[in-house]
Amino acid sequence: MSQPDTPSNLETLSAALEVGELQQLRFMLNKGLRPAEVAHLLEKTPPRERQILWNLLHKNLEGEVLQYLGDEAQADILSRMEASEVLAITETLETDDMVDILQQLPDRVMKELLQIMDQENRERVEQVLSYPEDTAGGLMNTDTVTIRPDITVETVLRYLRRHKEIPEMTDTLFVVSRKGAYIGVLPLTRLLTTDPDVLVREVMNTGVEAIPADMPDESVARQFEQLDLISAPVIDAQGKLLGRITIDDVVDVIREDADHSLMSMAGLDEDEDTFAPIMKTTRRRAVWLGINLITAFIASAVIGLFEDTIDKVVALAVLMPIVASMGGIAGSQTLTLMIRGQALGHVERSNIGWLFNRELIVGALNGLLWALVVAVVAVLWFQDLTVGIVIALAIVINLLAGAMAGTLLPMILKSAGIDPALAGSVLLTTITDVVGFFAFLGLATLFFA
Amino acid sequence: MSQPDTPSNLETLSAALEVGELQQLRFMLNKGLRPAEVAHLLEKTPPRERQILWNLLHKNLEGEVLQYLGDEAQADILSRMEASEVLAITETLETDDMVDILQQLPDRVMKELLQIMDQENRERVEQVLSYPEDTAGGLMNTDTVTIRPDITVETVLRYLRRHKEIPEMTDTLFVVSRKGAYIGVLPLTRLLTTDPDVLVREVMNTGVEAIPADMPDESVARQFEQLDLISAPVIDAQGKLLGRITIDDVVDVIREDADHSLMSMAGLDEDEDTFAPIMKTTRRRAVWLGINLITAFIASAVIGLFEDTIDKVVALAVLMPIVASMGGIAGSQTLTLMIRGQALGHVERSNIGWLFNRELIVGALNGLLWALVVAVVAVLWFQDLTVGIVIALAIVINLLAGAMAGTLLPMILKSAGIDPALAGSVLLTTITDVVGFFAFLGLATLFFA
Fold it and tell me: Can you tell me where the transmembrane regions are (chains A, B) (predicted)?
């Protein structure tokens, strides 16, 4: 939160690093800032400085700071640690936060770490690890406060008072049967407003559905958003209470899911470290450029088919990028709307027909509008009516192609199990380039033949 | 949450609408689903069906459902209502949710509504309305539970038990002075584990900083994420407690901010209704296409400068999209990373230098790699060494241009108060198209002269 007039944490840090004032830095990292703030500071620091800062950090803060870092930054720091070091700094964390960190370890280190862990911890960790990272089970924590339905509110209050501390983010107690089956919840706010003589059974809320451990994390997030939950119980297939999910972990899911679409459409990963080192960045970007180069070559090949026509009418070479570009822009608007719609759960089989029709009509209307504009400009520019007719037709065709591809690609890719945000934009561009160049140069070849 | 085997809510609805089974629909909307689920259903329904469903909804549920709809869908429904109707259905909502809805009203209706509102409500609404929508004041609610520091925990417990209900999402009580100044918080969990004879003063937490009412909402969101808050006190400039912000509203901010970058980069609004009607969609998209058409014409104008060269070597027309496309792809990767970095607060004046250098080096390395590949293909394809040399040079130049534009544009736009996510991609494409075509065709003109 940098203010225009006061130096930001990062500026203080850079200044201190430059003059080598490690004492001041050490104080800032270990006393002045909260672990989440230190993590934020590390994330906006280039690799070399980040390493220096990390080394200045007190051992017993490392785990806390680590859990607030993005996956890639975590992996980077963990890659320089032994299993025993990782264990030492993560031991005090909540199980789900610990597991989040362990998941960034190479398999070899992870196995080693599980071996040296004490049994109780290992069992807890292995339970959470047994569920995929992106399910309710992978998000949950085992620090629930459970009560029986047949005791009085007074007994609950006495029981709580004997505890020194109730786990963070506890807004509700979970009511379970003798066998551990989930029955309902007793919110703290209700506990506080109820007559002490009443039984838990009489005031508990049985209307809160528990979350099955295998529910995908985006469904968990939607449930939290729709029901305004702070925490929710997680159960296994037999209805046994396994743990709970808290809103702080759900917020991370929401943030990551939303970032995912944005970053994937540019071929980037949502966990991407903003300050990733040069070689790592170069390698990853190279892959994406290579994939897009194939697209570009396909477009060139299409143009190559019409070399003779271009040779005759050089104006075509001048105007052809307009056709491809308009189709690409219109298509990517449709694609983006669809990808967001899928992420929000707005798009399904039964309403895709309406969307497809709307996009086609919108594409046709905008196609006609802009085709006219471009045709007029082209005719005035090159003093050639045929060029105007050809480009107008090609633009309408390509905007329709963009609308179709933009609507259907995300549906097709999703049902094929391919991420539409990642593959959609490359495929869309390929289609609008090919259709655009082919329609424009093909029609020109007919008209000028 | 559609399962492959059971029909989704939407499918049940479509089927019921088709056969006109309004009875079943009415039951589903008013009894079967929660307000948030009805809202989600409305959002994935085309305009005509949406209107039918809305009419079937019970009056006393309309306000609840409305508050879960996106801004655009809200505005659409509200546009067909009188001020008195809007008042009737929103009266029972929490102040912040009510204000959220009122903000979608045309000014005229809003004024009318404030006039017919009772005084107590009007004062509350006007207080929240006096803060911009995207600040802490605009997010806050006035339903706080406050206590004095000089009473015992026992007194607090008795005071709460006299309440029938504590406001939703209350995880903590706020401790205020006699004059209403914010002093600290007393979490319910601590209240429950403390000896009843202890004074509030002795157990309250004074380490939770209150949020100033004018703090921008993204800073509020960051504070909630960093400190894992469920609710936080909001104060005015004098330190007086005004209300509180709860995590459910912060989750909306996070979701909207994250969607904002994705949607803006395609010239769309984050509040965009997935099922917006045809004419509305056409008009909005037309604007974006028009802006991008200017870019396309600029690119064409650059190509037009080199008509003679293209006339001589038609291979240039075939290959030129590759140069522009590679620069555009590389540039938009940098741009996306920067825009996400700005949204996460990772990028500031003191680290932009490092990022700029890294992007330049990455651009140069990938430029050299792919320039070589493209050159080899071009030489083999057209049997012309000069074409290979020219395209290789142009690709390196354009990837460097993309890296520079991708890094600097977001910084420049942001300090000029222009949204980088909205303007960035258009400007970037203009730059990489112009540089790409100019470098390639310009060099070709020199080499083939």
Answer: 286-306, 318-339, 360-382, 388-409, 421-448
